[in-house]
Amino acid sequence: MSLVHANMVDGIALPRLVWLHPNLVGLAFPLMKLLPARFIIRKALESGELRPGGLIAETTSGTFGLALAMVARLGGHPLTLVSDPAIDAPLKRRLEDLGATVHIVREPGASGGYQQARLAVLEEVLAGSPGSFCPRQYSNPGNPESYAACAEQLAHATGAVDCLVGSVGSGGSVCGTSSYLRRMFPDLVAVGVDTHRSVIFGQSDAGGGRTLRGLGNSLMPQNVDHTAFDWVHWVGAAEAFLATRRLHREHALFAGPTSGAAYLVADWWARENPDQLVAVIFPDEGYRYQDTVYDDAWLEAKGLRLDVLPRGPVEWARPHDGDDPWSSYRWGRRPYPEVMRAPGPRRELVPA
Amino acid sequence: MSARAAVPLADVPLASPAAARTAAATATTTAMTSVATSAAASVTTSVATSATATGTTPAAPVDRRASVRTIFPPPGEGARPGTGEVHAHHGEIVQGVFYADGVLEHGLVTLPCSLYRTRARFRPVRSGPLTVEPGDRRRARAAARLTLDALGRTGWGGAIRIDGNVPLRWGCGSSTTDVLATIRAVADAFDAVLEPAWAARLAVAAETASDSLMFAPGRAVLFAQRRGSMLLDLGGPLPPVRVLGFNTEADRGVETLSLPPVPYTAWEREAFGPILGLLRHAVERQDPALLGRVATASTLINQRHRPKRSMPRLLEAAAEAGALGVQVAHSGTVAGFLFEPGEGASPRVERAREALGRLGMHRSWEFTTDLSPHPEPLS
User: Fold this and answer.
1) Cross-chain Cβ contact B277/A155 below 8 Å
2) Which of A48-57, A137-146, B362-371 comes out lowest in average pLDDT?
3) With an 8 Å Cβ cutoff, is B193 touching chain A?
4) Minimal C-alpha gap between B351 and chain A (Å)
5) Which of A44, A73, B138, B218 is the most exposed place for a label (fewest CB within 10 A)?
6) Are the Cβ atoms of B270 and A145 closer than 8 angstroms?
7) Domain boundaries, chain B
8) ipTM, 2 decimals?
9) B277: distance to nearest CA of chain A, Å?
């Protein structure tokens, strides 16, 4: 391998591995979505789905768009991104600086919120430009497959891994990484971190948007393989934000709030299971959140400032819309319908 | 049984081309026996046919060069008879596809096996035909021609004799051992020592696909068998393991060179990266347990494409016996249960042997990749 990377995407696609506790290793990505973006575009070029110089279009308001913009720019592809007003201005400027065209959808859809509305606009863009390619990170199997590179790096560095913790948004990182690690370590425990009003693990998205962004979803992504998960945790925004700050204050690891949510759960799991080697995925850096998560005044104003973290999750007997700030459920690697069909908690009959 | 079934080295009657050479051939047999017994290898079997194997008494050291010279008088003219010896392998620890500069290449890491070896002897002549014995070893003949050319001896000829005990069509690299031993014998005749990478290129040119035996056993490498080049030097030998070997197809085998490349799924194509990552860790830490995980992972993927008979029950038996993993010849029929090195594993090896017997695999053998002695564990 050359000591000089071919380009910036190759240079920063893989995470830095950092010990946080003797049994907890953090996978600190500068921009995790570079892995699926690079892989999906590479595969599309190989298969001929995307022609050299062809248009790429995708719906995103987050880091997948930024990753695509970097990959598209380096590969010489025009890029159209369909987003919603939640996109922050600095990100939009950065995308445009990389040559992307950013469409903002102003009205949410009747059902499925902005994401549904964005998908409708995306279909129009694709239909209007024959030969264009849409990566579709929520359903493209290349998304989870791209995390083999991450599993390789982790296995090379640490050998056996007992538990993998990560936030779930598209299903790519945790489902992909765990599927590859389990080929070698079938007993690997996969812990998914979700947030309130995300539909991924059985809550409903009724009652307004999610405060904690970057994980969870208001539509069910095809790439979420529910049978990958042994446990699911739901973490609230305030708790995730404080955990993000703890990660920075205690480990000098400057990351975004999805990392904080994952850290909260992984730190607890590692302390509860000192004999296990735990790996936790941190998907992005903290720069985008300096005026929010990293600003105490903003946290105070939003009523999201906490002084102490909960000691542990409230374990639920089934997924529901409860508002415990941090809850967990033993998913047990079951398919989604099976979990949802399972009867609620029942009092055990005491034999006479 | 095939023409060259897996019989222990001492049992191999060296084909002697002329009756007059019988005495010399006997001397050579003795020499080879002393080599075999010094290797960490033993063969056990529950059928009687080759039971003589384990009882071989090491002969007094014999000057091998002297005995060889008895067979082949020195030809003069700057060349002398050359010999080359190569260990076979016992299938692979991993075989799949791996990224090299962004492109997927077929690659493998073999499990060196000291039980089986091939020797080639080459008697050069300045001009004349190039013959090989046994006569069906055309790839070895081609390799000799290529090596002569590579050494600037175009037009030279001579006689190549190949003998050894590497089973054919089991996936133990019999073809490569023929080719490689021949390349080494030809080089030796001119006092040349070939770099492994050079030998690899000649081997691939002679037989289209080649194993990585030129690097064994001191160095584990990820080798592109269809390209004949090293994809990755793992930086050390494989971790030490005891191997309980057996053949999943009794004494039958498969024609390994004619097999087409495996059509891996998109998921599988990426799966070999993480497996390689773990193998690198296992080699760096010399961790036998993780080597077992690597082998089993590759075996499981291979099973979807080139299924071995009884594999689910073999995996079960390995787990029950406490083996570290199961390796296979991905394009052959041999397989092995891996155990930690040393005597501590003996009860587990015995349990596994019994389980194999219950599955109808009565013939098994044992070898180790471990070249260092192991003290008894502290109790």
Assistant:
1) yes
2) B362-371
3) no
4) 24
5) B218
6) yes
7) 82-232, 238-368
8) 0.93
9) 4
Q: Give me the average pLDDT of each 10-residue run along chain B (379 residues).
A: 37 34 35 35 36 37 37 52 92 96 93 92 92 90 93 91 89 88 94 85 82 79 88 93 91 64 94 98 96 98 92 96 96 93 93 94 90 57
| Secondary structure (3-state) at A257 | helix
User: HSE (CB half, 13 Å, CA atoms) of A93?
Assistant: 4
How many A×B Cβ pairs under 8 Å?
66
Contacts of A155 (CB under 8 A, 6+ apart): A161, A181, A184, B274, B275, B277, B278, B281
Class of domain B238-368: alpha beta
Q: Which chain A positions have a beta carbon within 8 Å of B102's beta carbon?
A: 42
Instruction: Please give the residue of chain A at the shortest CA–CA distance from B233.
Output: A1
- Strand-pairing partners, residue B164, are B118
Strand runs labelled E in chain A: 16-21, 24-28, 56-59, 79-83, 101-104, 163-167, 189-194, 231-235, 278-282, 314-315, 326-330
Residue B45: both structure tokens together: 């079997």
Two tokens, residue B276: 């390689």
- Are the Cβ atoms of A159 and B300 closer than 8 angstroms? no
Q: Do A159 and B282 touch (CB under 8 A)?
A: yes
Q: How far apart are CA B153 and CA A7, in angstroms?
A: 47
Task: Please report, to the nearest 10 degrees, the dihedral formed by the alpha carbons of residues B307, B278, A33, A296 taken in order.
Answer: 140
Tens-digit pLDDT profile for residues A243-291: 999 999 999 999 999 999 999 999 999 999 999 999 999 999 999 999 9
Q: Would you state the CATH architecture of domain B82-232?
A: 2-Layer Sandwich (3.30)
State whether residue B282 sits within 8 Å of chain A by CB: yes
